[in-house]
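Lecture 7 notes: from sequence to structure.
We start with the chain below.
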Amino acid sequence: MWNSSPKKRTKMGSPMPPDSGYRRPRLLVAGQDQFGYLTDSYQYVLHLRKEFDVTYIGWDYGLPPITLDGAAVRHIPRTGNKLVRYAAFLRGLLTEIRRGAFDVIILSHFWGAGIYPLLGLNRNYIMDVRTGYVRASNTLRWLFNRGILIDSLMFPHVTVISASLGDYLHISSRKAHVLPLGAEDLAIPPKRFDSMRLLYVGSLEFRHIDRTVEGVARFMRENRGTLPITYDIVGFGPPEVEDALRRQIAASGCADLITFHGRVPYTALRPYLERTTIGIAFVPLVDHYQCQPATKLFEYLLAGMPALATSTEENARVITPANGVLIPDSAEGVYQGLHTLRNNLGSYTSAAIRASVEEYLWENIVAHNLRPYVLQLLSARAAAPSTHHDDIVPVHTEKGVP
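Predicted structure tokens for the same chain:
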């Protein structure tokens, strides 16, 4: 049975005060992203750092550094050719694991992650799977997804973004735990729906964002002067994809209303969410996108704005007439969806939109899903009969929490 849903929002428990028999559990979160540029791992660290001694290890992409008080952030230089830097990453992570004495290790999946549990340094390993392979090649998708499956066999514990993704990847439901996608409560003021300020945030690679530009531009040309309409695109992709997008915007006849901003770090998104009123969650309607919601969908909704979302299975679990519109993955779908949104503008309220997805606040997901899950692993390990558990931390919990 799949383990999943976050519960109603409450404040996370305060960390236990230190005493003679207690130290904070040591938690390592690691992956191949620079800290702060993958939302999920950033949120794990943000919400667990007061109760756990948290370290993050990732690759250094040379992006502006992001830090958090109460968390140690270490980066491995990304130099040399692909093979050299990959080997350096694996070796650097192993060095940190050996000297860190971590009680729990969460590895955001990367190719070859399965070697670490085999080394026997710590059996509280968790492999965190946020996505399957989403590029176009069927052969590469099969190979990469089988790689995820093989790596998962080496881990005692696996978290996945949805039960359907776990099923798609053939990960055993007996060892996997659903840790859903979420968003942060940015306390953005309620929206006024007297304009259509559109926002797309996400990857540009293999997403066909050009279709949104085509559909939005057509809607703008037909409705210019009737109500304020703009479209902000935040994200990045291969240079040729970005260049093609810029050319399309320039030729759209609406270059004064459509703006491509490029890469913006997660921590700098607030101004975009404040000044826009409609989010676009656009992914192609193909099998490998059906099992995961668009990354920014919950951020749009928790910012109090309705979403125009392609009708994947996971998006359809979230979008209702009260918080958005589901569309096909075409320019025509975008165009028609914008007409529906315009007709519904008077019925939307930010409070109702937020309430529809409150359970997906990162604070709730970590407090009521990830935190109890990690504490349960610590308790199980401490209780297991072994002669090698002298270093295990006694687990302090709140009443009613494992």
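Points to note: The longest strand covers residues 53-60. Residues 196-355 form a domain with the Rossmann fold fold (CATH 3.40.50.2000).
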